[in-house]
Design brief:
The chain has a single domain (52-336, 366-457), classed as Amino acid/polyamine transporter I. The protein contains 15 helices and 4 strands. By secondary structure, the protein is mainly α. The strands form 2 sheets. Strands 1-2 form a two-stranded antiparallel sheet. Helix 1 (2-8) packs antiparallel against helix 7, helix 3 packs antiparallel against helix 10 and helix 5 (103-144) runs antiparallel to helix 14. Its main location: membrane. This is Amino acid transporter.
Length: 458
């Protein structure tokens, strides 16, 4: 997603409809999708594979890949309405839902989208603090030995990240943060590649492939079920990109038709991403077996080379500083735009002040932006401090929005656009597809919530 924002805003020229001129190609689209999908969620896949075992783990990732591609194909046809090639453009997911499904479901879609973005901000606070702590612990282990009690709390790191985000959140909009997005994208690929490489190295060092068909054993059947459900939620968090698919598609030039290019790009990008996920998940599990950490780079399955562990975690931190803003800026824009429309004469909301600091560019300060964005960052930081549980939080976020945003809305919009009649063969197949995904989502959500409650009470 980071590359998406920087590239689509780089060109100031506009099309006839007043929007940014579309110059995207198949290859830029593939790059956008891969960058949007590969993020901090990849670090939990080794743990997810360990809970599911050698058969169910890889099969689950392949199933989520297929589901994601089907969802992307259905949604890409909804970029234009009523015809997928010649119809009027829908620039965002909410625009498409409003056209096809009406105002009420648009509000539901918007709520889930912004909830997902807000929740991702919470997850990023947790992940960043864990990586900051991991750097501290890595250096401690290197100096004091691997058995040293190098334990540090999360709260101070979360507060530091929150302070950084309060400053970064005063960036007015995406037009002023292209450089931050590009850096974040490079960091994402860097730490993912390091985690993959360290997994391979550990397997070679061990001289054996660890793990079993049944995965990590649990004390009771119930505990095993909860862990499996939570693992499915983590995989769900790592895959879908539905909430930004139409925004990516809006960067494509035509001809050829945008939906055709998008389907080809989705197939290629999901294939590459799945290969990468399978390698990270499988080699991580093969390296550590039943001791596979929840986060591949911060669980200290790897101690050396310590400088590479430090570098990888530094990449995570830099990526998530930018990633937090990528997911938060749409929430800021919606909130501030709505308030400006409701209270057009309010100086607090609409008046800006220019502050000049020697040797620095002039700062455009708005009181609403200062107060509301600061409160937003404080709230995400506060919730993260209350529930600092990496795998469980990712599971809840993935399962909470997976079915409605990646399955339900694309299927329902496709029915309306293609005028698919009830109880026809296509209608029955897609409804079964939606129902199965709903059941998986509910199972994953319940398991992840149980994981948070158990972690909180323990």
């Amino acid at each position: 997603m980071a590359v998406l924002n920087s590239l689509e805003l780089a060109n100031d020229s506009c099309d006839d409809d007043g929007h940014q001129k579309r110059t995207g190609t198949l290859w830029t689209c593939i790059a956008h999708i891969i960058t949007a999908v590969i993020g901090s969620g990849v670090l939990s896949l080794a743990w997810s594979t360990a809970q599911l075992g050698w058969i169910a783990g890889p099969i689950s990732m392949l199933c989520f890949a297929i589901v994601t591609f089907v969802s992307a194909s259905l949604l890409s046809d909804c970029y234009r309405s009523p015809h997928p090639v010649t119809g009027t453009r829908n620039y965002t997911y909410m625009d498409a839902v409003k056209v096809y499904l009406g105002e009420k479901r648009t509000w539901v879609c918007g709520f889930l989208q912004y909830l997902s973005m807000y929740g991702t901000g919470i997850a990023y606070v947790i992940t960043t603090s864990i990586s900051m702590r991991a750097i501290h612990r890595s250096n401690c282990y290197h100096k004091e030995g691997h058995e040293a009690p190098c334990e540090f709390g999360d709260a101070s790191y979360m507060l530091l990240f929150g302070a950084i985000q309060i400053v970064c959140s005063q960036i007015p909009n995406f037009h002023d943060m292209e450089w931050l997005s590009i850096v974040a994208a490079v960091m994402s690929f860097s730490y993912s590649s390091i985690g993959f490489g360290l997994g391979i190295g550990k397997v070679i060092e061990n001289g054996t492939i660890k793990g079993s068909i049944g995965g990590v054993p649990a004390a009771t059947v119930a505990q095993k079920v909860w862990k499996v459900c939570q693992a499915l939620g983590d995989i769900a968090f790592a895959y879908p990109y539905s909430i930004i698919l139409l925004e990516i598609q809006d960067t494509l030039k035509s001809p050829p038709p945008e939906n055709q290019t998008m389907k080809k790009a989705s197939m290629t990008a999901i294939f590459i991403t799945t290969f990468f996920y399978l390698c990270c998940g499988s080699f991580g599990y093969a390296a550590f077996g039943n001791q596979t950490p929840g986060n591949l780079l911060t669980g200290f399955g790897f101690y050396e080379p310590y400088w590479l562990i430090d570098f990888a975690n530094a990449c995570i931190i830099v990526h998530l500083v930018g990633g937090y803003q990528v997911y938060s800026q749409p929430v800021f824009a919606f909130t501030e735009g709505w308030l400006a429309e409701k209270f057009p004469n309010s100086g607090f909301i609409n008046k800006s002040y220019t502050i000049r600091v020697p040797l620095l560019p002039a700062l455009n300060l708005n009181l609403l932006r200062l107060c509301s964005r600061t409160a937003y960052v404080i709230s995400t930081t506060g919730i993260a401090m209350l529930f600092p549980y990496f795998n469980q939080v990712l599971g809840v976020l993935g399962s909470l929005t997976f079915w409605p945003l990646a399955i339900y809305f694309p299927v329902e919009m496709y029915f309306v656009q293609r005028k698919v009649g009830a109880w026809t063969q296509k209608w029955v197949i897609l409804q079964i597809f939606s129902l199965v995904c709903l059941l998986v989502t509910m199972v994953a959500l319940v398991g992840s919530i149980e994981g948070i409650i158990s972690a909180r009470l323990s």
